Amino acid sequence: MIPFELAEPPSLEAAIGLLNPHDPTIRPMAGGTALMLMTKAGVFHPVKLISLRKIESRYSRVESDGNELHIGAMTTLGTLERSSEIQKHVPVITRTLRTLSNVRVRNVATIGGALAHADPHMDLPPVLISLGATLTVTGPKGEREIAVEELYSGYYETVLKANELITGVHIPVLGSKSAAYYKVTTGSADDWPALGIAAGIEHDGSWIKSARLVASAATNRATRLKSAEALLVGKSVDDELLIRASEIATEDCEFIADVRGTVPYKRELMKVYLRRAVRAALNTGTVVNGRDH
Asked: How confident is the model at residue 43 (pLDDT cuts 50, 70, 90)?
């Protein structure tokens, strides 16, 4: 690796002050699990990294006000996985994290860093979008709120400015809703998925009152399947309706090919696993890690 400067500011304000929107070689670093790999591989050549490890401890907490969970952006994925508040109010996140990479990564990687990295294969973005989660983003001019689904603008791209940081994640408690996530891998359960499908549904038995369906990994960013959502809302679910919804979702998506599968292969996965995710949300609200053979 090429040598670089490492700054460790003691506060969020100081960290933001060190970011230069005109210099792409200066980057913030949370857990550093992805950034260090990119640096070692020669994909990124930093001149200066701004470590966020020493900023205020309130950015590493999980709190609940009864209606929403408030998660500091520096909270590690391991902390989320073990959080009783997460398990109680949004257990789909707990189950999702158990197969997100490995325990060593989860104990270092942070939720803010993971979301800002914008890797389309990440498991959390589709789940958070299906739950209607929002973000607090902080920069020199103060804070702004955006929905997680509005964060991503393209492949590894976000709407964040170069001197802005994600500082909080806010997740509505499930309440009467239920959610499920299907992760389809061709390798081990903790491998990057060929397809991720999340479903957040409010329902009365098989009757769907509202739905948020999200695809990832097969697309260049986590993507709401809005046409399929509209088809399902106000109807009682049966096999024929789910087949129609999966076909509509497949036609609406722009699929990408990678080492985990071709476009035709991922299209077929979508047709199968969207139906399964909706069924899982209606029946049990659990996470299932699909493994393709």
From this structure: confident
CATH of 177-288, one of 3.30.160.250, 3.30.470.20, 3.40.50.620, 3.30.390.50: 3.30.390.50
Q: Which CATH architecture fits 5-51?
A: 2-Layer Sandwich (3.30)
Mean pLDDT of 197-204: 96
Average pLDDT, rounded, for the chain: 94
Report residue 41's pLDDT band, with 50, 70 and 90 as the boundaries. confident
Decide which of 38 and 97 is more confident.
97
How many whole angstroms separate alpha carbon 255 and alpha carbon 271? Answer: 13
Report, in angstroms and rounded to the nearest whole number, the Rg of the chain calculated over CA atoms.
19
Cα–Cα distance for residue pair 59/108, rounded to 1 Å:
15
How far apart are the C-alpha atoms of 45 and 156, rounded to whole Å?
17
Indicate the domain borders of the chain.
5-51, 58-172, 177-288
Task: Return d(Cα 59, Cα 283) in angstroms, integer.
Answer: 35
Q: Which of 191, 185, 183 is closest to 280 using CA atoms?
A: 183
Q: Using the structure block, give the residue that is written with the tokens 């506060």.
A: 11
Find the Cα–Cα–Cα–Cα dihedral 171, 162, 225, 249, rounded to 10°.
Answer: -140
In the structure, what pLDDT confidence band is assigned to residue 36 with cuts at 50, 70 and 90? Answer: confident
Query: DSSP labels for 8-27?
Result: --SSHHHHHHH--TT-TTEE
CB atoms within 10 A of CB 5: 10
pLDDT at residue 287 is higher than 70: no
